[in-house]
Amino acid sequence: MPPLDFEGHKLDHVADLKSPQCRNCDIVREIAFCADLSQDEVKRLATVRCHAALPASYTIFREGDVVDHVYSISNGAVKLYKLLSDGRRQIIGFLFSGDIFGLGTHDGYCYTAETITPTHLCRFTHRKLDSLLEEIPRLERRMFSMAVKDLVAAQEQMLLLGRKTAKEKVATFLIQLSLRAEKAGMPTSSVALPMSRADIADYLGLTIETVSRTFTQLKRDNYIGLPASGHCVLNDWRALKDLAEGA
Amino acid sequence: MPPLDFEGHKLDHVADLKSPQCRNCDIVREIAFCADLSQDEVKRLATVRCHAALPASYTIFREGDVVDHVYSISNGAVKLYKLLSDGRRQIIGFLFSGDIFGLGTHDGYCYTAETITPTHLCRFTHRKLDSLLEEIPRLERRMFSMAVKDLVAAQEQMLLLGRKTAKEKVATFLIQLSLRAEKAGMPTSSVALPMSRADIADYLGLTIETVSRTFTQLKRDNYIGLPASGHCVLNDWRALKDLAEGA
DNA sequence: CGCTCAATTGACGCGCATCAAGAGTAGTGG
DNA sequence: CCACTACTCTTGATGCGCGTCAATTGAGCG
């Protein structure tokens, strides 16, 4: 994938503010950034945002890049990952509609962000967002509580990576996706798997082969069904949850 | 260890505000909470704090407990951990002087906090701290940036747990302690190891035996020296760092 | 000195990685 | 529409790193 010039707005997939998907963006941002903001505050926020549509497997920024923007996903899916020098990869998180990413330190972003599917993003510069934070104290609260939420999830993932078996890891992953689907108002008994086996493996600290074998095993034991690639049916949610928690 | 009544102030190790170590607490809090607060703001903060001295291996709160306080370590060492139902444990972090802990969600604390060594703590109720956050916006900024710092560290630890070998894990751990010592103004070539091998193992997603063997191996290869229990000398910082990063 | 518990060391086994082959699956162009 | 290509995914055979089990050594403490 040649690096298209997204940051410089020359990418031909970039949509402008008048495009149809921007209305959708407004809706989604209600969920994410602005759930408890007033109409005026939402409008003020809208003045500093920028919208873009990106293809699949598109690198949004790399670990170490200067931190200049915060991103909000309108729709699509994004993965965040860190690399070791020899290419070993750890996926930090999968993000979907309504999720925010782009926090970092003065050393730059601490992970690489890449689209999984074609994705619509909203983007805010840190500079403009900072001045907004002065204006709207509740926005700061909201950013804080989202960072705490991410922190709690990261700690849960540390338990998974350090102490769970392959079977428990995959079960936990499916439960996570199911809970996520529930929050988005989707059915919990069937989850979409837009990411590849390689992505799942790098998220769970396993290899592609082990992930594949574990899926097969869970299917054989009737925990799940795999009707089509990219989809998974959870036959017994409770049993899968117990498996995920090592019971 | 019988559970002493710390929360009800009946613990005989609890020190009051006039005790000598409280002056120390003021100094340390300069580093932690209040680095950029005014004298008045620091004094205001002092009105809502409560101080306690705890013995080693003392459980401060448990995963799932109602979130009512935020804690700041004056001196000593604390470990945070999560448990699976069958007893498998993952240590989320080791905390030292100046560190803050006690964030959580409405579901309660998401980890258990336990002292490693005898420890002096400052404690703030969430309720009082919340009202302070209204008064002192900069305090909210500070809490936010500390949550981000924790998040970045958690993501780095995910890379360690998911993708590093035992040798790389132990090397990374020693480098972490060394960098921490540097920030505290201590020499980087020698680090204190107040925690047990079991704690180190549960932090790195290994067993006691593997940690022990890896220390022995690093010593044999002259990366480190182990002059006395609880101490480790880093003979070649750069080489250890390269090892930690998988080079 | 002797008790207790942490740490080390050794022997062995297992879960997951590695290596390798085969079976879908999707995109491409004639 | 089908062949061709390039993947991704699955499945099998084998190996290794780390876990498990067990015994010994060492350190702190009354």
Return the string of H and E elements of chain A.
HHEEEEEEEEEEHHHEHHEEH
Separation, N- and C-terminal Cα atoms of chain A: 44 Å
CATH topology of the largest domain in chain A: Jelly Rolls
Helical residues, percent of chain A: 40-55%
* Radius of gyration of CA atoms of chain A, rounded to a whole number: 19 Å
SSE class of chain A:
alpha+beta
Summary, kept brief:
With 247 residues, chain A is of the alpha+beta class. In chain A, 42% of the residues lie in helices and 22% in strands.
Structural commentary:
Chains A, B: One of its GO terms (molecular function) is DNA-binding transcription factor activity. Chains A, B: Keywords: DNA-binding, Transcription, Transcription regulation. The structure is a homodimer of 247-residue chains. Chain A is of the alpha+beta class and 247 residues long. Chain A has two domains: 21-157, Sandwich (Jelly Rolls); 164-244, Arc Repressor Mutant, subunit A (Orthogonal Bundle), CATH 1.10.10.10. Helix content of chain A is 42%, strand content 22%. The first copy, chain A, is built from eight helices and 13 strands. Chain A has helices at residues 21-31, 39-46, 126-135, 137-163, 166-183, 197-204, 208-220, 237-244; strands spanning 49-54, 59-61, 69-75, 78-83, 89-95, 100-101, 104-105, 108-109, 112-115, 119-125, 190-192, 224-225, 231-234. In chain A, the strands form four sheets. A four-stranded antiparallel sheet of chain A has the order 1-10-3-6. In chain A, a hairpin with a 5-residue loop joins strand 4 (78-83) and strand 5. In chain A, helix 3 (126-135) packs across helix 4 and helix 5 crosses helix 7. The longest helix of chain A has 27 residues, at 137-163. Mean pLDDT of chain A is 87; it is low at 1-5 and 7-31. The A-B interface holds A 82, 84-86, 88-90, 92, 103-105, 110-111, 137, 140-141, 143-144, 147-152, 154-159, 161-164, 202, 204-205, 245-247 and B 82, 84-86, 88-90, 92, 103-105, 110-111, 137, 140-141, 143-144, 147-152, 154-159, 161-164, 202, 204-205, 245-247. Chain B binds a DNA duplex (30 and 30 nucleotides) through helix 7.
